[in-house]
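User: Show me a protein chain along with its predicted structure.
Assistant: Here is one chain, sequence first, then structure tokens.
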Amino acid sequence: MGENEIGLTSWTAGAGPGWDWCRTMADSSLAAVVVTDPAFVISYANEEAARVLACPRKRLAGRSFLEFVEDKSLPLLRYYQECTSWDDYVSSRFEFAFVRADGERRLADCTLSRLDESGTAPSMAIQFMDLTERQRAREELKSSFEIFRVIFESAPDVIYLTDLRGNFVDGNKMAETITGFSKGELVGRNFVAAGLLSGDQMPKAAVLLAKNARGRPTGPDEFVLTRRDGSRVPVEISAYPIKLGGKTLVLGIARDISVRRRAEEEQARDRENLENLVRERTAELEEATRHADAANRAKSAFLANMSHEIRTPINAIMGFSQLLQRDGALSAEQRKHLSVINRSGEHLLAIITDILEMSKIEAGQTILNPVTFDLRALVGDLELMFGMRCDGKRLTFIAEGPGDDPLYLEGDEGKLRQVLFNLLGNAVKFTEAGRIVLRVRASRLEDGRVEVEAEVEDTGPGIPADEQAGLFEPFQQTQAGRRAKAGTGLGLAICKEYVTLMGGDISVVSRPGEGSCFKFHVPMREGDVAAADKAEAIRVKRLRPGRPERRVLIADDEDLDGAFLTKLLGEVGFQTRRAANGKAALEEFSAWRPHLIILDIRMPEMNGHEAARRIRAAEGGADVKIIAVSAAAFAEDRKEALEAGADDFLTKPFREAAIFERIERLLGVEYEFETDPSGGEVRAHDADGEAPVSADALAALPRPLLKKMRKAVIQADYDRMIGVVEGLESRHPPLAEGLRRLVERFEYGRLLELLPSETPERSDR
């Protein structure tokens, strides 16, 4: 017998074929079905009953159904008695709690039916369905509704329902709060009828309501509600058409925007106040800017005037000292005094240049002047210059350059040189024992540029940490600098500005008592060797004979400056005339037709700018060359001079080499020099046929003597050099005569070229 037939024997015993369909229906029923005798002993159970009661069918047969009833009360007996007492076939329906075989309590919907069996007490068919999930869903729905109701009633915005004509259907508590009406008073009335909306707002409300009727949401739109007490409140309303109970209603959300309106009004007032304040501050700043500009112009004018006033006498001092040095009749003592004058003038000029350069930096007028230069030659110049100064203080000087081969770069050589000069100058100034090291390296970057890295290391007193922070600020000096009472406190500030302008950075590492190391790096480009300026400054002797005469007009209101240029140019063969101001220069130009005009910018009656413009506008003015000169050292002076028509610009005080170079370039003249640029021999006076001084003749001299001579030349020690020459007169008279004339003309550069090169080991002394 199969499992589906367990316990069915008694139920189907003696039954006719009609019972088969009953069993089939019971087996396939979605409800749990059990059949019991009058004592509720199970004689049949379908699969659903086994599932609901969590007990296999084969274990249900013979068990009392009352085992699964929770309260063990007798509702089943009562219903059974009712069913059996009735004559007709009756079924009863009720709910009861049952406990599954696994102990879980559940709720069931039960139907009890009587089964009539001939000659026996009626059996019962019990059909039941598990209501637990349905009951749980009902409770969850109730809970969700309660939650929704709480949210709905406690919402800070008005939430309401209206029909498509705008009549109020329902709303939350906030609807009563914001309107002042109860929900009962609002139901069935629209906002206009309730007096909430003024008539002028109704057309707008009607348009929005029509859109809702067509199924389109609206808002947010602003309205002003009139409350029951007559007060008015601005609201922002959004409306959405919804289906509810087969009807289309409008769900509205109204938000009180009073706080926002007040905030917007306050913001508008604040914005207006801020705009007024900005206008006032802008006007104040514009006024302050005008005052600052005026102050800057006054400062620039003052500095320009001071530069002119100071440089003018320096120009005379240095100019005439250069002229005097050309005089071969001077005694050694006189030459020594002239050397002191020149060095003092150079020192004073350096101080003035620092101050003016710092002023230009502050005014943002400093610009880069890129040229192609030899980095190795630059390091060599510094080695020669500072090696001599270190020797004088018994310091070891080491220069590590970028390598043996020349490295041509394109950049501002002048500013790079000035930075290195300032750093080395400070190192020499503050180092009393030990050594100074200059390291310069160049490395190619990925973008094709070349990065120049430099270090200046010394064994000086070092810099305390508290002084390092302001080290690169203008007019800031360390304690050691203040004790030395030297300098302006601008050198390192200029270094910082120059390095930054060139796109690099500078730093210092220093410990008191151990020395300092200044490092910087700047990017440059690799230069064209052919474009490198390798000109050698040599003294002009005269214009090459047989060439056309050249007329030069010198326009300068300063007698000393004019006299210096007149004498300098006249000595080498130029025809010269002088003019005391711009007006006189214009007249001389028309009458004399010079080839070149050296034109001072600052002159009475008519300044150089105006004179240049008028000369250019006059007949033949396009052909004459003009060199503008000024004691003011500002970029705008050069710019204004070139814009006025000048071909070039020179700053006073200028050296004779710079003047001759400009004239050569502008007029195409040719010179004869006192030194032979080819580098072979040098003669004291070429025309006199005196004995030459050759490198070979010098190389034959004793090494100690050559070392002594080289040291004297490097240190520009005139007396020591004359002493060496006098020591040679008895043994090498022609050579001694040639050397004397070179020394007396201060041609130290040429002497260094002729002396055998020597790189001895330096040691501390």
